[in-house]
Design goal:
The chain has 148 residues and is of the alpha+beta class. The protein has three helices and six strands.
């Protein structure tokens, strides 16, 4: 089932998105912030590996910036039209996020059987290079500004 998020937006066109998704009930399962630095635990490291795996695939998406926090993940997803037919193609940005969350949850549940992501995710369509830079700064400083 495809959930159209912004009815006025064509999700098949090239664009960048600021995405946030949460652990169910905002449980702090992915690590902890100490001295304004995020320290990933084993579960957070699994999420990190899954994000890196998406970037290592030959596909029409790239995660250009991200941060994993104790109870949520922020990332910039760059969505491109596929050029070559041998690429792994995500038809919509939501397909990539769904795959990322499913793979991470599958691996995390081997260590923590009751782990769950919150359904869906939040997105902001990045409008221009200035907006893109502001989102990168927000992501880079997220642990410094994290309130427990």
């Amino acid at each position: 089932m495809i959930v159209k998020r912004a009815m006025w937006w064509d999700y098949k066109k090239e664009a960048s998105y600021f995405i946030t998704f949460n652990v169910l009930n905002k449980q702090k399962k992915l690590g902890e912030v100490r001295s304004k630095i995020m320290n990933l635990n084993q579960l957070g490291l699994i999420v990190d590996d899954c994000i890196k795996e998406i970037n290592s695939q030959e596909s029409n998406v790239n995660i250009s910036a991200y941060c994993i926090m104790p109870d949520h993940v922020h990332l910039i997803l760059e969505f491109k039209k596929p050029i070559e037919s041998n690429l792994k193609v995500y038809k919509y940005p939501s397909d990539c996020i769904r795959a990322l969350k499913a793979k991470a949850a599958y691996q995390i549940r081997k260590l923590n059987s009751n782990f769950q992501w919150q359904d869906n995710f939040y997105e902001i369509i990045i409008k221009n290079i200035y907006h893109h830079q502001k989102v990168i700064e927000y992501i880079k400083n997220n642990a410094k500004n994290y309130i427990i």
